[in-house]
Amino acid sequence: MSSRRNFIKNIALTAGATSLVSMNSFASSGQEELIYVSGGDKTFKPIKVEGRVISNGKGIARVSISDGQQVVLTDANGYFSIVSHNQRDFVFISIPSGYEIKQLSNGSADFFYRIDKNKAINKVEFVLKPLQESDHTHHFLVLADPQIQKIEEAEQLLSESVPDMLGTIKSLGSTNVFGIGCGDLIWDKHELFEKYNQAVKNLSIPFFQVFGNHDADLGQRSDEKTHFTFNAMYGPQYYSFNRGEIHYVVLDDVFFIGKGKEYIGYLTEEQLAWLEKDLANVPKGSTVVVSQHIPSYTGYFERNPKSSSLGAMVNNREHLYKILEGYNAHLMSGHTHFNETIVLNDSLIEHCHGTVCGAWWSGPICFDGTPGGYGVYTAKGAQLEWYYKGTGLSKDVQFRTYRVGEHPDFKDNWSVNIWNWDTQWQAYWYEDGVRKGELVRVTAKDPLSIKLHEGPKLPEKRKWVEPELTDHMFLFKPSKTVKSITVEVIDRFGRVYSELYSL
């Protein structure tokens, strides 16, 4: 459960469901059949959803359409039909590769209809526009935890984070760019969704939103009742889409237990069953990118074995991994407020992102020393490359170095924080231009985080923030007579980052 986040103020917000239609739909009335479910007190009413997927007046075949339970493919002429029911809220398209991602008025992706439960037959039409530029190569940003709680934080998001992201988007030199808001878009204050949406609109790229624990309708008796506000703005909380040769999935792994704000990391059977059906139309060997707020796994609990993991990892993650077997899968997450890239196996990588808000908008870094920022990904065919972009920093800034005496636990060593490191990275140091050896990885705190966060009076804005142990700290001990030191870091894609230090 979320006992680790005991800093949250207790508030209870309840939002009613809002009728939202994302595309122009039309319906014809028909005879309604009422089915009374044995043992239940709700009336189950079947609703038929039928329609077509078209582009330039022609139907598109083999496009996935779903109501969150069933998944069907369009026929040769683009037609589909689903017998849904009044306990489903949406019918949505898995946008096929090669077509534009439409946007809602709030800047987020438009890929769904809200089912009209007053009509026995809903007729819908998904109209797609071909891309002008191939999406074989495409890009996306992952924004974890903007988590704005106050107006001044929203203004900081708009005035600092957004311009930085706009610069990154421009540097990509492509029109095929989208964003993923990886949950905790706000911090319990629903009135600030408007500010978050403004940030998304200012970026001028379509965004797919992930449900986070701080985006919920709080104070509800069950998990099922916590999504109404999110659904009203962004549509379903789990769905899929396609770009180029990659299949993208968004899941909701925040499960509220009906006890205040407490939740666990958990994927419902409904979602797992839907995911199996969704992936049945994706060939084995394909690259699949799954975005969810809570990471499936983190090394935090190896570093802090006395902490509870229920609210910080997906408890039934092995079942997710089983479904993803046979695919080259990447899991995108946030939630932890530190950066961590974990190679789970040869075909599965967890990308737990540092946050847009850093350490809850208290300063420039997360509490593991990672700069506040976001992930930047480039897909070339089925291959994915990435880097972490610190807000206000060059994309080439991928580590921070501390000299002898700056790390309180390793005073005789230089220390280096390589925040996006994984097991395929390399790190060396040079003395007077001569390579001396490989850096040694340790579990330790970041010296800047210690300086900014340690103790009951720091940081001034969020005094409960403390420096966090991380597995991406490195050490080396140079010779005493050396005149210059170079730190060289090589990422898994062969990109070299280096800094020269004169002594």
UniProtKB/TrEMBL annotation:
Alphabetized GO MF terms: hydrolase activity
Annotated signal peptide: 1-27
Domain of life: Bacteria
Domain Calcineurin-like phosphoesterase C-terminal: start-end pairs: 350-497
InterPro entries reported in the protein's UniProt record: Calcineurin-like_PHP, Metallo-depent_PP-like, Metallophos_C, Metallophos_N, STPP_CPPED1, TAT_signal
The Calcineurin-like phosphoesterase domain, residue ranges: 140-337
Keywords: Signal
PROSITE patterns: TAT
Domain Calcineurin-like phosphoesterase N-terminal: 51-127
Protein name, per record: Metallophosphoesterase
Source organism per UniProt: Myroides marinus
